[in-house]
Amino acid sequence: MDILSMILMSVVAAATPLLFAGLGELVTEKAGVLNLGVEGMMLMGAVIGFAVTAVTGTAFLGIPAAALAGAAMAGLFALLTLNLLANQVATGLALTLFGVGLSSLIGQDFVGTPLDRLPQLDIPGLSTVPVIGPVLFGQDALVYLSLLAVGGVVWFLARTRAGLVLKAVGENPAAAHRLGHSVLGVRWLAVLFGGAMSGIGGAYLSLAYTPLWAENMTAGRGWIALALVVFATWRPGRVLLGAYLFGGVTIAQLHAQSAGIDIPSQFMSMLPYVATILVLVLISRDATRIRLNAPASIGKVFHPGG
């Protein structure tokens, strides 16, 4: 029972950074913007969150700093693509490369620095329940925040006027502009939200998942988060499902290695990324569903004077 509980908790931990980054990118793409710089934003969130926590001694400052770092990277992307009309795909790739290099530079003095893991919020009487107790009631604050974020994004997109405006901007920015909505303003806010969420996802890696800083510690999770949005067909609830699915694959390969299964470790490490490719291939076969659910103007440049 204890082993099962540990496995489930490991799945939750592996899924949480993917969930943060995936939700942020979903909102960004719902506004019609494709930001491929998730990996770079996560790395900046990871290093800034770790650095601020290490210097100040409190994650209550480190986590907001990580969100601001991710938002700052996203703001640079928004400036180049929304105001200066740069190509979104090329700019997103450049943002990832920039984030990899800048995070390595900032974090070079923090390599090997010890840091306490984010504390678990144990609920007396509930967190001691066999198997499900630690999984449901013994997590850290960021895990619960990620679940609240799913509910918040679902509510925002489906129940609020601002959410409907955001979706309208993603579907037909010209029509939204004619109705008096600020297309660039909506897209700026969506991109900043996506960056902040990616930054928090990165901070979870360096403060909770593996409480340390190491270069390129996201290890491709930003790309998996991008794939999650397509896997979820741009629906927040399915992002939650996909994040935990890929989290389970990640943990499965770790436990397979520890169990001594006679498969090369390099192949086992490939499993999460192989699963990502397979899922995308299977989903891409249903072009009709993707066309119906994907924002119609995703990746397309819009300028009010154009």
Account of the protein in words:
It is found in: Cell membrane. InterPro entries: ABC_transp_permease. Keywords: Cell membrane, Membrane, Transmembrane, Transmembrane helix. This is ABC transporter permease. One of its GO terms (cellular component) is plasma membrane. By secondary structure, the chain is mostly helical. It has a single domain, classed as ABC transporter involved in vitamin B12 uptake, BtuC (Orthogonal Bundle), CATH 1.10.3470. 73% of the residues lie in helices and 0% in strands. The protein contains 13 helices and no strands. It has helices spanning 2-30, 38-56, 59-83, 88-107, 132-137, 141-159, 161-171, 173-178, 183-209, 221-231, 236-258, 265-284, 287-293. Helix 1 (2-30) packs parallel to helix 6, helix 1 (2-30) runs antiparallel to helix 9 and helix 1 crosses helix 10 (221-231). 43% of the residues are buried.
